[in-house]
Write a structure and sequence with these properties.
This protein is mainly beta and about 240 residues long. The protein has two helices and 15 strands. The strands form four sheets. The protein has an eight-stranded antiparallel β-barrel with strand order 1-2-3-6-7-13-14-15. Strands 11-8-12 form a three-stranded antiparallel beta sheet. It comes from Rufibacter immobilis.
Length: about 240
């Protein structure tokens, strides 16, 4: 009887380990091209058999130029990104495969997966606008005096046109640029490892780390006076949470 009980317990434990067929997660992405917070992702995983899984994912991130630096106008207190002409936001639908190296026990432990994924990259280029002082001034004894009305125009930043930073009074924000988007088509490929935690089998909390490369067709000028490229490489970390069944 004792041996039969042990056998049943082992079979039950193995069944618990294989007890989920789907997993849905969502999380925040941090990457070397996105600054402090890169973007967000959602992911749906399906069990294929054994230790293999397939998944569909969607990532939305901002890609920044490595030369970006924020400057403050001390007269107005507002800030802007010096030399930036365009934002780049990217949507990445992906299909991938996962392999489980170490499986998490039913109520504790860590599960380690290896993964690869690929898919199209939909680039959204949005103009970066600044508020530029177009008023008339005269200079007397080293000081500027306003002549006539104050004229502040909202214009796409071109460092070859807006050469005097003194007259850049601020930036209206990203939503202004998103009202005038243009699109680029590309592709991406990533590889990584995920480490899943969770008190119970149906709960998923974890991190994913890896590398991603993507390339686009067309003009990808983010900063006119800096070196721009069509291919981007990044390392990333994603914090995610979800459920499985």
């Amino acid at each position: 009887m004792y041996g039969l009980s042990v056998g049943l317990a082992s079979a039950q434990s193995a069944e618990e380990e294989e007890s989920y067929s789907r997993e849905f997660t969502y999380g925040l992405n941090f990457n070397s091209n996105g600054g402090l917070l890169g973007g967000a992702m959602i992911k749906q995983v399906y069990h294929m058999g054994g230790k293999w899984y397939q998944f569909w994912a969607l990532e939305g991130v901002e890609v920044k130029h490595p030369k970006e630096s924020r400057v403050q106008n001390y007269n107005t207190g507002a800030s802007y990104i010096n030399g930036k002409s365009n934002y780049l936001f990217v949507l990445r639908p992906q299909y991938g495969r996962e392999y489980t190296f170490f499986r998490k026990a039913a109520e504790s432990g860590v599960q380690v997966n290896g993964l690869v994924a690929a898919g199209p990259s939909i680039g959204i280029m949005a103009p970066y606008f600044i508020e530029y002082d177009r008023s008339n001034y005269i200079e007397q004894q080293g000081a500027l005096y306003l002549v006539g009305p104050l004229i502040i125009n909202t214009e796409q930043y071109d460092p070859n046109v807006h050469t005097n930073n003194f007259f850049i009074v601020g930036a209206p924000g990203v939503f202004k640029g998103l009202s005038e988007p243009s699109f680029r088509v590309g592709a991406n490929l990533k590889a990584g490892l995920s480490f899943e935690y969770g008190r119970y089998m149906e709960s998923v909390t974890g991190i994913e780390v890896g590398m991603l490369v993507e390339a686009f067709a067309g003009d990808m000028t983010l900063m006119p006076n800096a070196s721009n490229r069509n291919a981007f490489f990044s390392v990333y970390l994603t914090l995610y949470y979800g459920r499985r069944r």
